[in-house]
Amino acid sequence: MSNIGSYEEKLKDFKWEISEKELEYTKGNRINIGEYCSDRICRMGKGDKLALIWQSHTGEIKKYTFNRMRVLTNAIAEYLKSLGINSGDRVCLFMDKVPELYFGFLGILKMGGIAQPLFSAFGGESLYTRLADAETKAIITQKKHVGKVRKILADLPKLERIIVVDEEEEEKLREKELYFSMDNATPVEHFDIFPSTAETPSVLHYTSGTTGKPKGAQHVHYSLISQYITAKYVLDLKDDDIYWCTADPGWVTGTSYGIIGPWANGVTQCVLDSGFKADSWYKFIEDHKVTIWYSAPTAIRSLMKEGNEVVKQFNLSSLRHLCSVGEPLNAEAVIWSKEVFGLAFHDTFWQTETGSMMICNYPGMKIKPGSMGKPFPGITATVVDLKTYQPIERAGIVGLIAIKPGWPSMFRTYWKNEEVYKSKFRNDWYICGDRASIDEEGYFWFVGRDDDVINTAGHLVGPFEIESALLEHEAVAESAVVGKPDPVNMEVVKAFITLKPGFMGSKELELKIMNFIRKKLSPLAMPQEIEFVDSLPKTRSGKIMRRLLRAKEWGEEIGDTSTLENDD
Ligand code: 6R9
User: Fold this and answer.
1) What domain range is 516 assigned to?
2) 347 lines ligand 1 (CB under 6 A)
């Protein structure tokens, strides 16, 4: 029997109070995610149970029990406090998927700080934009990434501390840098956990939009109520499960369901700190007897590409439930997984802003391959008209995905950007910015994004951020960045560029510009193709028409461009 039992039955009587009750939370009282993920689980008698099984890219394994996690996260919290970091201060986590990242996250929350996880593959400029915006006070990083921080430090007057978790030669540390070894830290048995309440800020996750700089979606400790119960019902986490979430905590899946959801449920998690490789992924599942696996369509398509033979070389019989998130999960991938694993991937739809799963396929519910499923009990979701924002009553008509505000893990604002936050709401609906339709049976079918944001391998990249960075290259006069189709990553970045006088388009220049972006922003943001053009299509007021360029890449009907020309 799955945790959710019957989805239809749960719909009838679900209330968020069910989650509050299970977590023994009463309104107005303290709620601290760090405490819920470690101390509470120990109090429930699971202190000796494994919380984390971590494996490095070289095969090194480290294991931590819930009690060890409790005393180490206490040690981190105490250390941060001793450095003068106060509640409400932003502390950035800028690391590969090492144990210090996971425990650092909980340590920050325990002392009342706001955790700001950033993807460790970010280059200096991506890092700078987000640290400057959040006025981050401290950053926890590794020696392999500290160079990127050093380069931008002079422009970040608010950044007071740089904590390096693996630099053993103190003399190599520079200004503001400190060394903190988590595994060698004195365990702290008792720490006065910050008395956070429901609305105390917890996590700041940066996400890209069409225009402007990336925005910090600000979450609060009360998000736990959603994350705990969705992890329980959708991922079907049970006491004896071994759970593997392949997402990096630099992105929201890696925190909501790679830290908070599973640990608040007292479940053992595995982490593999290495890139994608089909055989090592299968071996990881076999070695650790993974039972529940939460991954992403790009990874699944990459596995599909490697073929069925490699699957047969491993014993994957421990697996019992599979879920996916981040981008459209194509029907073929669902059918393939059923064929090779005997289990279908269950698609889940949600966003950085929603903090937890919104529209999902549930254990036991009929899966329609290609559909995102139905709203989580307690979530009111629909599609609204593209112009009037009125709910669309008829099945099969495409509109904007809209959710009734009020679920516990909803973001509370964009950091210092209330205006953009407010613009996300229309007629009392939160507008996700995605298009979909709903069929006669209430299943949601994803159509595409309603903006120019590019979803590459499940990661959102903002065209504006790339275009701005391109302009910093000496050869670039103007640019327009769009997503182009890709069989594995769904979309990759393509840049159209006009050159400054004296520069000629060439393969060599293309490579130089690609590398320039990779270093400045990230490998995800790097254009996979650059087309040098004489001019870019523009609206009458001079705005570049990205949509026209995008439509060409996708072989879509462009139609009447006169409307686009007026489109400001
Ligand atoms: C959790 C996460 C959110 C955007 C979202 C949509 C796309 C996510 C999807 C999906 C189709 C799914 N997206 N899940 N598209 N099917 N199951 O990914 O958060 O990084 O903020 O991305 O990703 O476009 O609006 P985030």
Assistant:
1) 454-554
2) yes
Helix (H, G, I), strand (E, B) or coil at 311: helix
* Strand arrangement of the beta sheet that strand 529-532 belongs to: 476-486, 490-499, 529-532
**Residue 567 confidence (pLDDT):** 47
Q: How far is the CA of 325 from the centre of ligand 1 (A)?
A: 7
Residue identifier of the C-alpha nearest atom 18 of ligand 1: 326
**Domain co-membership, 329 together with 359:** yes
pLDDT at 4: 98
Structural domains of the chain, count? 2
Domain check: are 523 and 417 in the same one?
no
Closest ligand 1 atom number to CA of residue 459: 20
Joined together, the tokens standing for residue 148 give 């990127």
State whether 229 and 172 are in the same domain.
Answer: yes
Binding site membership of 430 for ligand 1 (Cβ less than 6 Å): no
Residue 562 has pLDDT above 60, yes or no: no
Say if ligand 1 is within 6 A of residue 112 CB.
no
Both 85 and 162 in one domain: the answer is yes
User: What's the pLDDT at 210?
Assistant: 75
**Ligand 1 within 6 A of 327 CB?**
yes
CA distances from 164 to 149, 172, 294 (A): 11, 11, 30
Residue 395 lies in a domain: yes
Q: Are residues 428 and 542 in the same domain?
A: no
CA distance 290 to 244: 7
Report the sign of the C-alpha dihedral through residues 510, 144, 71, 139, in that order.
negative
In a domain, 443, yes or no: no
Tell whether 338 is covered by a domain.
yes
Do 464 and 343 lie in a common domain? no
Name residue 373's amino acid: G
- 107 pocket-lining for ligand 1 (C-beta < 6 Å): no
Q: Could you give the CA distance from residue 334 to residue 349 in angstroms, rounded to a whole number? A: 15
Continuous segment of H or E residues that includes residue 442: none
CATH number, domain of 522, equals 3.30.300.30
State the pTM of this model: 0.95
* Ligand 1 atom having least distance to the Cα of 446: 11
- 349 in ligand 1 pocket by Cβ < 6 Å? yes
Cβ–ligand 1 contact at 159 (below 6 Å): no
Question: Is residue 337 in contact with ligand 1, taking CB distance under 6 Å?
Answer: no
Nearest CA to ligand 1 atom 4: 351
Q: Which of 435, 467, 485 is the last residue of a domain?
A: 435
